[in-house]
Amino acid sequence: MFNQLTSWMVYGILQDQYSEFFIRRQDDRDGENDSSQRDVSDKFMQKLAKDTSLASWHTGFHVSLDMLPEYIHMRVAESILFAGKAIRVLRNPSPGATLQEPVSQSQNSKGSQRMQSFIGGSGAPKDLPNFSNISAEELLPQAEADRIDAMLKELKHSSEFHKRLFESAVGSIRTIAANHLWQLVVVRADLNGHLKALKDYFLLAKGDFFQCFLEESRQLMRLPPRQSTAEADLMIPFQLAALKTIGEEDKYFTRVSLRMLSYGMKSSTSQKDLQKPNASELPSQGKATSELALDGWDSIALEYSVDWPLQLFFTPDVLSKYRKVFQYLIRLKRTQMELEKSWAAVMHKDHADFSDYCKDRKNGSATQLRRQRSKPLWRVREHMAFLIRNLQFYIQVDVIESQWNVLQSHVQDSHDFTELVSFHQEYLSALVSQSFLDIGSVSRILDSIMKLCLQFCWSIEQYETRPNISEIDHITEEFNKKSNSLYTILRSSRLAGSQRAPFLRQFLMRLNFNSFFETTARGVMNSGRLRPSTAGAQL
Question: Is residue 424 within 8 Å of residue 185, measured between CB atoms?
């Protein structure tokens, strides 16, 4: 057993022709019993090449419970598994890897100070000299390998097996492997720079870029996406926004790409409610394409290119969570922008009408009447904007920024790769849970509210030429029902006792600062339609 442990934890090699060891390959039954030594060697090299890939790290090996001795705890076996996989990564660097300048021994003793240079400051990490085809000796010095070997030999040559000494040695070896893997991923591969880039683009920290992108693509998004060209159509405003807002010093933007993940998404309302009346601009490539609803643009997503060894940290599941949060945030920002744009357009028209009225007061009664009729609409719009603004502020400041600061403190203080993976998972879980994406009832209500806000904006833009009072009343009634339901669910005792509670209370306090939401939710307003006098109280 100690010979197998040495092979696994010193060299990262699993040689177990007779399936005696408790660390197993997932595909260990392929070609294990070849009689030809040459065939065994060739197959082993093929397996080694395969095992050093991303799949090898995540699913290439496992602990066989049937072969695990009763005197080795499962926790210790998992430490052995991790240490061997880490040694394999360190001893088999990717040939095309481009890593940052190694840290000197004197700098290595000052962990917090060293990490401060990567964490501190408002800009991206400073560029450091790069090195390609880095050697395994640089990632795992021979002295460290000899130290691991010496610990295992001491246990092997002991006259008795001491469980406590064995577990202590395994823990020390695991720490060595985890620290060197931390050095590789965090320092050499610039983990914090990539974390900052994911925050900038997937969590919309670069607000100027996405504001510009949404403004450039606004006219495009007023029509349903064309199934064959939607992604290419979006690339033009995406690149224009980049030219206007992204500086040359941002070396991470080239890793970001725009995608349309799916098509044919239909809203819960009729197509007539969602689409603009200019049907001549709709695609005419068959029924499936022409029925795409406007919220097909909700499938906009980002992808991020990750190189070795960061694939060990940014797994497909991790990037999928980032995409999920991004799609939620970009819908929210688009809704907020449309509400602002509708207000600006109408105020421009209102000022023009008022100017005409001042010039000709005798014939200005129609203008005044139109202004009076439109006032209830702007109260509804302000009510919508109030909810969307507070939700956006809550997510961007109370959730994302606070959780980002917690993650940064962990990155600064931790020197263990597995700890960082755990901290990052907690960070993503907090983003998802505190944004209510894990509560189906809340996320569905929020999705409906954003759609209603967009429908309202499109309806009032046509109000002068094609007034549709019943449609606007229906939208207003549905919005009030949804917003009241949202407030009722968020203040429920089930959510109040969860990890969301501290920040959730702040969000509810902003929403209900004058008891408007609470009064409405209790049913004081018997009518679903927002009353102008009551709505004015919220203003």
Answer: no
